[in-house]
């Protein structure tokens, strides 16, 4: 186990009764001395906010960028991925609950300072670094410092997040990110309250902010859960909102749920549900709609929105066919495909490579 350390936290203020209020996310946790927030990793210590997971990780791994999922952000490249522990949502269907819901710091078995992560990712040939597995919002200080070090090393930064964050912290956090995949858990406030312990509007605010006020490349993922958020009406409402507020070029991923955590009594999402959702979203006018967690080559493939030709054919995380120009255009009709593209090398493929950094062994 890596010993717990206290790193000065940001985004908080003192209140009159001796407590402090966390201003990082809309939970607005009010803490007494020694008390932790709902995320478990932010704590009042010595009258101030501290982050208890700075420099500590539940593990490091090299993944294909498509696993985040990001299909339009340097396809075929590798991404150095890591997370910590805890979460500021309380999703009953969490697919990474052993990490995100953990209050067991024994899970934080690896450690690395920001500079070491950047050096390691660059030396291993990664194009980017992803803050993922649990929500990077709650370890924003660590993520921001690491992102700055990665930028100095020529790496891109990717946030995989639920987007539940206040405006001031949001500006600072996304100022150092190059891409984000935001989990849009459902499209009713009732769903968010009952199954996530949160509210819908702050997430929508984050999506609009990312699209309209930043240069961050944005993709969205919605986990479809049978009987809870998979009706035609809700999918159509979600797709119509994305079309209206964000535009047709933001990729939307529909992903399959499997029974886990506190929702073990529901069945896994049928592949047909994802295909139906994809058809509805395409009918709403969205250009790039994908399916995930199922084997569906058509649902994984990027098609030209103008001529309909397949441009990036995916088989799970493999890319057997890639036809985009280096500038990211369709070679058949010249239509520019939304995203971040460069010369396509041999793809990284479906490998998942666990990594142990040196400081985890030497205690530095």
Compute the CA-based radius of gyration: 20 Å
Helix content: 25-40%
pLDDT averaged over residues: 93
Model regions low in confidence, pLDDT < 50 over at least 5 residues = 360-364
Q: How does the helix and strand content classify structurally?
A: alpha/beta
So, the CATH homologous superfamily of the largest domain?
Aldolase class I
Would you state the CATH class of the largest domain? Alpha Beta
Give the amount of beta strand, in percent: 15-25%
Tally of structural domains: 2
Q: Give the CA-CA distance, first to last residue.
A: 14 Å
Overview of this structure, please?
The chain is built from ten helices and 20 strands. It has 364 residues and is α/β, with parallel strands linked by helices. The strands form five sheets. It has a nine-stranded mixed sheet with strand order 16-15-14-13-12-11-9-8-20. A three-stranded antiparallel sheet has the order 1-6-5, with no helix packed on it. Strands 2-3-4 form a three-stranded antiparallel sheet, with no helix packed on it. Strand 14, helix 7 (232-246) and strand 15 form a beta-alpha-beta unit. Helix 2 crosses helix 3 and helix 7 (232-246) packs across helix 8 (271-283). The two termini are 14 Å apart.
